[in-house]
């Protein structure tokens, strides 16, 4: 498969960061770890991977701006482009020796997501998409799953870290969805969750409380695989609100409706 020059720059950055993560994954017990907030860890591995991506992308496309999880905002000179980077999505998994983690890189041009790369080094799975050009897993073109009834679906979610006494809204959503679907999964890397929706492995996904770097690449993958993504109100403010619901057209609609139902004893 011939990739564009832009995707090549992104793939090279993601795979180089992925190799660094793989090395650190092998000796995770030696890493320095600190806490940014309840349940929110950051390690040397996150920072090293982010530095690699920053260097590679700056070299490949000088002047573009950045929004990176650990480093924050780096203003660019060109005023049109912004990279959204999560160097290690699934830090908690990584630190527990669970291989469900990924590198996520998206490019925005004039506020529109135009290119995406998600890489899981442990499984050597590389997901790529460019606006209008389709979504791919390695060389294989992706298509969202075709299931039509919520009762047949396996749905992914993320469990937000809200602190004691603040889980009420999520528990209502979870109960509502559990009552309708055939299975629920919580893998721990939202970038991979969305890549799995694009690949038809998950029929749908929802989560709240996310950041733009978590989901920007995944949103493009889902869309380019023929799927639908919205925020939890049904609008397009996913990056601003941090809420996301995704699936094929029918499952997206049904899941969104179910997530938004009031409490129902089940
Ligand atoms: C986290 C993961 C997780 C999601 C959290 C995210 P991080 O990202 O994507 O699946 O449930 O909300 O913060 O911190 O490991 O990059
Ligand atoms: Ca984090
Ligand atoms: Ca993340
Ligand atoms: Ca991260």
TrEMBL record:
Pfam families named in the record: Inositol_P
Cofactor(s) it depends on: Mg(2+)
UniProt record, GO biological process: inositol metabolic process; phosphatidylinositol phosphate biosynthetic process; signal transduction
EC number: 3.1.3.25
PROSITE patterns in alphabetical order: IMP_1, IMP_2
Domain of life the protein comes from: Bacteria
Entry-linked Gene3D superfamilies: 3.40.190.80, Fructose-1,6-Bisphosphatase, subunit A, domain 1
Binding site for Mg(2+): 69, 86, 88-89, 214
Reaction(s) catalysed (UniProt annotation): a myo-inositol phosphate + H2O = myo-inositol + phosphate
Protein name as catalogued: Inositol-1-monophosphatase
InterPro entries: IMPase, Inositol_monoP_metal-BS, Inositol_monophosphatase-like, Inositol_monophosphatase_CS, Inositol_monophosphatase_SuhB
Enzyme class: hydrolase
Organism the protein comes from: Mesorhizobium denitrificans
Keywords: Hydrolase, Magnesium, Metal-binding
